[in-house]
Input
Amino acid sequence: MIRVLIVDDSPIARSVLTRMVNSSPDMEVVGSAVDGEEALAVIPRLQPQVILTDLHMPKRDGLSLTREVMVRHPLPILVVSVSVHQESNDQNIFELLEAGAIDVFPKPRGGLESAGEQLTQELATKIRILSGVVPIRRHRATTGWASGRPAAGDRLQGADLPRPVLPRSSLASPALVAVGASTGGPQALLTIFSALPAQFPLPVLCIQHISHGFLDEMVSWLNLHTPLMVRVACSGEKPLPGHIYFPPEDRHLTISDRGSFAMESGSERDAHRPAVDVTFQSVARFYQSSGVGVLLTGMGRDGADGLLAIARAQGVTIAQDEESCVVFGMPKQAIDLGAAGKVLPVNAIAPELCRLAGVGLPTWMKGE
Output
């Protein structure tokens, strides 16, 4: 039985979330708190395995709670918040992920009747995934994902697989980077994108599995941490150097025969929309040996077949290693297929991309 603690100052939200969690036979709500201060007081007694928390609360908000939990007794945290980007907000829910939370989930906004079966099942799935995650204890002053810099002692070397699917052609220079991620992805993207220099010459396409409604807020958050331009792609435009593109919500992102963005609606039955596989396979078709595929942390196998397609086209393929993954699902599937030319810790991926693109590392990465 997965033990869940709910932290929210809204009685309605606590009631709705309690009903949603308790509807699954393999999990139960062991307690609730009205703010972070009360949560910290009850955690030692209740011994939860997963914490669900809102961002805005009195006394101690979700960000402060997350930081303190990661210092005192690290636990997997799911941020449950209204999934609407508001320009007036002085805090971004992705700051909680930067502080150590694992994932985000949209708060039911219309009471009990709004928490339908699909949303309930999605919440249960996220809780099950998080219950298997072992968070890393953090010090009060960290250099981790908040700065994008590797902490002292972090590995920067990767492991070349002995037998990649096909040797990379030496004739083609990289023209585009495609990145795929799921659970734990925003934190990994922050680590990578914040370490890329302003002169990074390649466009980057990024597919991140995330609950509906959080895309704009994630894009805004990432824009604060990288010198590159992060934005949502538009159909018909061509990818530009130094830009990081995400597909619109519920659309697959592909490259047309003319090299411009094309959006596909896909099917309601698609396991993921957008899907990493769809984008990676499109990149393999158009860019062939000049495409670079990077598959990051996440549950399932989306992206594994797409990374294999890029490898077979003699493009560069990179998978995140198990040690630095929140969930070693998607990269493991790609590695098992022989699709990963390199397996790298997350802190080593930006330096590798800089090497491939022929640009220098940021000063702090050179040890200067």
